[in-house]
Amino acid sequence: MKAILFFSIFIVFISCSSNSEKLPYLGNHTEEVSKSQTKVINYFKVPDFSLTNQDRITINNDSFKNKIYIADFIFLKCPTICPIMNQQLKRVYDVFKDNAAVLFVSHTIDPENDSIPVLKAYSDQLGVDSKKWHFLHGEKKDIYQLAEKGYFSQAYENVNAPGGYAHSGAFILVDKNRHLRGVYDGTNSADVDRLIKEIVILLQEKSN
């Protein structure tokens, strides 16, 4: 049985094509009128969080200041989509490994088994720089809430799912201002190619 792929973010906003000069802003936005009677759009932002990476370093929103990053939710004992996702994200990592403006974040949804030492060993096995690709550990409730409320993604325990967890296979692209700018199927190489192209577009975009 395939793990559930849940892209609720698509329901809220329709993504643009990879040929767009400017990527869309995803999520629920609010509008207000300034004192000068100018309409201001407040784009959705990833909420504050604080988790621990494989080097036992606290990682929070400030860790991504002036950076763009790609986020996903995985667990290392996943028997279905996670190995594919990790392989695909490593492919993206290899493209941007020398670009200091691009970071990567994988949140474990199984912190009991994916302890910090386990995440560190996996990171080392994968051959990635732990300062560039963070494998994040924290309380389940915090990670599940961050997935749902912060990235419009999915992560929860499900005894009927392979490995005991259901989660999205999405890669989420986040800009320098914590805005969600794209979502991609991390099990589909063609969609991951689109992610690579849209990272380039986002890097060229002026900050708002």
Notes on the structure:
This protein is an alpha+beta fold. The protein is 28% helix and 24% strand. The protein contains five helices and eleven strands, in the order αβββββαβαβαββββα. A five-stranded mixed beta sheet has the order 7-6-5-10-11, sandwiched between helices. A two-stranded antiparallel ribbon has the order 1-2. α2 (82-96) runs parallel beside α5. The protein starts with 8 loop residues before the first helix and ends with a helix. Mean pLDDT is 89; it is low at 1-20.
Output the keywords.
208 residues; two-stranded antiparallel sheet; 24% strand; globular
Helix-strand pattern, N to C?
HEEEEEHEHEHEEEEH
Helix segment count? Answer: 5
The largest sheet, given as strand count, sense and whether it forms a barrel, is: 5 strands, mixed
Rg (C-alpha, Å): 17 Å
State the helicity in percent bands. Answer: 25-40%
Q: What's the arrangement of strands in the largest beta sheet?
A: 7-6-5-10-11
Distance between the termini: 43 Å
The structure class reads: alpha+beta
- Runs in which pLDDT lies below 50 for 5 or more consecutive residues are 1-20
Instruction: Give the integer mean of the pLDDT values.
Output: 89
Q: What proportion of the residues form beta strands (DSSP E)? A: 15-25%
Number of strand segments? 11
